[in-house]
Amino acid sequence: MSKTSLKKTLNSLTRDQIMEVVLDLYEARKEAREYLEYFISPDERGMAEKTIATISKEFSPTRGKAKARTSVCRRAIKDFTRLHPSPRLIASVRLHYIEEIIRYSIRLRWWIKESLEKALPNMLWDTLEYCFSNDIIDEMHPQITDIIKTLEGCRAHTAKEAIETYRHFCIEKGITPVPG
Question: Known InterPro entries for this protein (predicted)?
Fold first, then answer.
């Protein structure tokens, strides 16, 4: 169904019918419930902390072995982004994900799944691009600097690839890279 046909249908309903549809949707889907609760009472910090907790749980669970599923982390970030919080919070959550990958990789001495090997440079580029396009790259610079300095201390191929990604981004955007 397209937005246009949805608008047409909603326009044809009475106020009470629309309220009933929204209440049914609230009961039917967890995602809809979260969105409506956020819509009624926006708590950006709370949602950011919840997303960060989801990401952290993938890499450092309280019980059991870390699963480190990129799909779960990307989904959590995507769901958080769909709520339209401030760009700073989105960037912080994205950078936290990158930091978790690095910490996890260091713990395993860089013997990580191929999906994580690809996720690190890709997410780094996407996050830098996001920060640049939202004009918050200077604000996020301390966190980005810490990430790059940590990566520079590693010998692993994935770390070197992420550093190259960072340097290429800096050259492309005319930004002075972190010295190293």
Answer: DUF6155
Find how far residue 61's CA is from the centre of its chain.
18
**Cβ–Cβ < 8 Å for 97, 80:** no
Q: Are 177 and 166 in contact (CB under 8 A)?
A: yes
Residue 101: count other Cβ atoms within 10 Å of its Cβ: 26
Chain-centroid distance of CA 116 in Å reads 14
Q: How far apart are the first and last CA of the chain?
A: 52
pLDDT tens for the chain, 180 residues long, are: 899 998 999 899 999 999 999 999 999 998 888 888 888 888 899 999 999 999 999 999 888 888 989 999 999 999 999 989 999 999 999 999 999 998 888 887 767 778 888 888 999 999 999 999 999 999 999 999 999 988 887 777 888 889 999 999 999 988 888 765
Q: Where are the alpha helices (DSSP H) in 41-86?
A: 44-59, 70-81
Say what the alpha-carbon torsion angle 109, 115, 116, 118 is, to the nearest 10 degrees.
Answer: 110
Dist. CA 136–CA 138, nearest whole Å: 5
In this prediction the pTM is: 0.83
